[in-house]
């Protein structure tokens, strides 16, 4: 058996688990069984993950619990096992469906034969129909029996009653058609769910399974990527995909990173640059030193997130599931009343009313309704991932389109956030080198982008900075530390004012240089300023268009929250077309601003780069992180990540979300309309069995394809207006 003896979790592939009905069924089967700790179902992948106490039960016992419900289950030892086992189940169902369809057609054709009738049907026809029904039954019976034993009528039970009832009434053709169409719609459902499932698998197949590892003596051998170790060197030829994440150590090329970022313009790569598994090496033969094992690559993280996202149910899915829970029993009750009451009250013909109640039973299947929403959501999540937008759950996909307020962080979000020191202005007779020495001594301890820029600049100037002690970071303001026993501080204007080290001269210098292309910080000792640093950081070129598009989409408030100085903030806001901004905001102030909007009942989306922004991202209804190629830890804290720092993905996302919601609404409306229409027709006797089930199958098909449409959403839609 799979796994170590101490393993307390096992995942099973369950054949044909496409309907919440079946999940409910399995949940019941597991209830009260010894040693079962937790169950989690993945409808899209048809898997159950069972956590269990290994001293009380084992995988085999767990499988037998599933088998007792009449469903096939196999142990899922690894990912690769899932498509195969699924396919063979689908294949068998398909051949039985084809057989049922063929025999129904034969039965219909033989119906013209002038031979002795059996129950109003010529006997050769009756035989063909019987074979059709038997073929369907072969598939349905085990499940129906499992459900019946638990006194929990599911669709299989209802269909069995409908078919037996129709035979009892002498309606052979109808019985056969119902059996066939029920099989067909089951098969279509599992096919369509499989289609969405395969879309996720296509993401997984992005990375090649084999890497060419180069050894010290120059020989190359091909090994499974799972066996490549961190630090190994792999050779990648032009046109091949990078098998693992790594750093270039030889060669020069460009990489198409579309598989991860959704952006197909190639990015130049030279020695020292990072490359990602699944991205395509364009023209150079290169050597890459592997930096991450196969399970930790950016791509693996993306896949894991998409899978986790689709396993979580969205509000629409929960609504539909809850609805289905009441719907089926309610229709069954109505069906019983229709069968019993009219003949009792009005003395009508009981055969007629039995038939009508059978039609109602057929309509009681909520599958079309129930399957349409997850298919839509999974398609939407997958399409977004392909476009470089990582959404961590259906609920975010559904709700981001309803945003009233979009709050942007400035640095690294509206601006590029990769600044360089442009000018160093010494004050009070400090020399430039002394100024740089002290500043980089303090900043070498910080991870802030300003600190990195100052340290890099000092190093470039050949300055070796002394160590510092007692370093303290002041989030959103600056930092303080001791160098050679003397305290220094570096930060924005507000920080200097608060520490009472700002002078008239520094005040003027800072105000003078604050503009949309610069951020200004100053260094001071504990009593007097020593100099001012001008850091260049421009707005992203697509910022203005994206903000305009968001406004055109009807987002009522777009604002910028920043810890930077007033002057720079005003200039950047103006340049990006953002009308509202708040400057010199600490991380806590950003959270407060977001809470204020929320208190007014508005839906707030926060877009940030993750540095200092994690609290604000968490406070907003939806936090969107600039992912910087997916390498940033901010993806962990946000609900949605932009794999490529491209602000135009935001309006795309808003539209994508609205499209998703529109499709869900259409699907729910259509499936309910079909149900209501046929329930009414059934009661007044205008609908017959095969029509009811054909309409149901048709509705399933329509809603499924409607959902799958989202898979085709791509960058081209970016130009479409709202
Ligand atoms: P934003 O809100 O623009 O993303 P932060 O909240 O990260 O910016 O920081 C706000 C401001 O605080 C910066 O613009 C800078 O002036 C100052 N600051 C923060 N940390 C540092 C640091 N380590 N060195 C110098 N200045 C800093
Ligand atoms: Mg920031």
Could you characterize what this model shows?
The protein is α+β, with helices and mostly antiparallel strands. Among the domains are: 8-83, Alpha-Beta Plaits (2-Layer Sandwich), CATH 3.30.70; 210-296, Calcium-transporting ATPase, cytoplasmic transduction domain A (Distorted Sandwich); 387-409 and 541-653, HAD superfamily/HAD-like (Rossmann fold), CATH 3.40.50.1000; 420-536, Calcium-transporting ATPase, cytoplasmic domain N (3-Layer(aba) Sandwich), CATH 3.40.1110. 50% of the residues lie in helices and 18% in strands. The protein has 24 helices and 28 strands. The strands form six sheets. A seven-stranded mixed beta sheet has the order 16-28-27-26-17-24-25, sandwiched between helices. A six-stranded antiparallel beta sheet has the order 8-7-9-15-10-13, with no helix packed on it. It has a six-stranded antiparallel beta sheet with strand order 18-23-22-21-20-19, with helices on both faces. Strand 19 and strand 20 form a beta hairpin. The radius of gyration is 32 Å and the shape is elongated. The two termini are 54 Å apart. Residues 1-7, 78-86 and 717-722 have low confidence and may be disordered.
């Amino acid at each position: 058996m799979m796994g170590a003896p101490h393993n307390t979790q096992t995942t099973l592939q369950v054949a044909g688990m496409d309907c919440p009905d079946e999940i409910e069924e399995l949940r019941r089967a597991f209830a009260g069984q010894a040693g079962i700790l937790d169950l989690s179902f993945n409808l899209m992948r048809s898997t159950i993950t069972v956590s269990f106490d290994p001293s009380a039960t084992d995988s085999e016992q767990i499988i037998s619990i599933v088998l007792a419900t009449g469903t096939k289950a196999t142990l899922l030892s690894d990912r690769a096992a899932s498509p195969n086992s699924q396919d063979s189940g689908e294949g068998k169902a398909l051949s039985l469906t084809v057989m049922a369809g063929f025999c129904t057609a034969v039965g219909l054709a033989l119906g013209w034969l002038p031979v002795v009738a059996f129950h109003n049907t010529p006997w050769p026809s009756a035989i063909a129909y019987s074979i059709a029904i038997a073929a369907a039954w072969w598939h349905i019976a085990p499940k129906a029996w499992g459900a019946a034993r638990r006194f929990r009528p599911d669709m299989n039970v209802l269909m069995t009653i409908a078919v037996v009832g129709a035979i009892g009434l002498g309606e052979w053709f109808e019985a056969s058609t119902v059996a066939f169409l029920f099989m067909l719609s089951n098969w279509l459902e599992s096919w369509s769910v499989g289609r969405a499932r395969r879309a996720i698998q296509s993401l997984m197949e992005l990375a090649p399974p084999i890497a060419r590892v180069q050894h010290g003596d120059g020989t190359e051998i091909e090994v499974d990527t799972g066996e490549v170790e961190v630090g190994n060197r792999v050779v990648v030829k032009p046109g091949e995909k990078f098998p693992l994440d790594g750093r270039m150590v030889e060669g020069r090329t460009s990489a198409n990173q579309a598989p991860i970022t959704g952006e197909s313009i190639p990015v130049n790569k030279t020695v020292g640059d990072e490359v990602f598994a699944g991205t395509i090496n364009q023209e150079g033969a290169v050597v890459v030193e592997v930096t991450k094992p196969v399970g930790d690559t950016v791509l693996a993280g993306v896949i894991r997130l998409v899978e986790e996202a689709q396993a979580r149910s969205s509000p629409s899915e929960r609504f539909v599931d809850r609805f289905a829970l009441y719907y089926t029993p309610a229709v069954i009750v109505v069906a019983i009343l229709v069968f019993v009451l009219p003949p009792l009250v009005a003395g009508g013909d009981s055969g007629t009313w039995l038939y009508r109640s059978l039609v109602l039973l057929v309509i009681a299947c909520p599958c079309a309704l129930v399957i349409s929403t997850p298919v839509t959501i999974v398609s939407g999540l997958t399409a977004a991932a392909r476009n470089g937008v990582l959404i961590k759950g259906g609920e975010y996909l559904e709700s981001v389109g309803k945003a009233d307020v979009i709050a942007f962080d400035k640095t690294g979000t509206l601006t590029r956030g990769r600044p360089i020191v442009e000018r160093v202005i010494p004050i009070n007779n400090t020399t430039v080198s002394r100024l740089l020495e002290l500043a980089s001594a303090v900043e070498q301890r910080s991870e802030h982008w300003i600190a990195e820029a100052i340290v890099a600049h000092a190093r470039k100037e050949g300055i070796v900075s002394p160590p510092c002690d007692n370093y303290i970071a002041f989030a959103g303001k600056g930092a303080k530390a001791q160098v050679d026993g003397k305290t220094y501080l570096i930060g924005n204007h507000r920080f200097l004012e608060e520490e009472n080290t700002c002078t008239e001269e520094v005040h003027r210098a800072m105000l003078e240089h604050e503009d949309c292309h610069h951020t200004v910080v100053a260094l001071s000792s504990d009593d007097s300023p020593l100099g001012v640093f001008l850091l260049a950081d421009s707005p992203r070129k697509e910022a203005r268009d994206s903000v305009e598009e968001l406004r055109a989409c009807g987002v009522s408030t777009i604002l910028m929250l920043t810890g930077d100085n007033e002057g720079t903030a005003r200039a950047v806001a103006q340049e990006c077309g953002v009308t509202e901004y708040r400057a010199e905001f600490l991380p806590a102030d950003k959270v407060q601003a977001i809470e204020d909007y929320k208190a007014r009942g508005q839906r707030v989306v926060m877009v940030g780069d993750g540095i200092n922004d994690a609290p604000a991202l968490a406070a907003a209804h939806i936090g969107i992180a600039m992912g910087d190629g997916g390498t940033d830890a901010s993806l962990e804290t946000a609900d949605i990540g932009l794999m490529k720092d491209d602000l135009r993905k935001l309006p795309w996302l808003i539209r994508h979300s609205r499209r998703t919601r529109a499709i869900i609404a259409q699907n729910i409306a259509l499936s309910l309309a079909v149900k209501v229409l046929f329930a009414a027709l059934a009661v007044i006797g205008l609908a017959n069995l095969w029509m009811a089930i054909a309409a149901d199958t048709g509705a399933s098909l329509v809603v499924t394809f409607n959902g799958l449409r989202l898979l085709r959403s791509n960058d081209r839609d970016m130009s479409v207006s709202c």
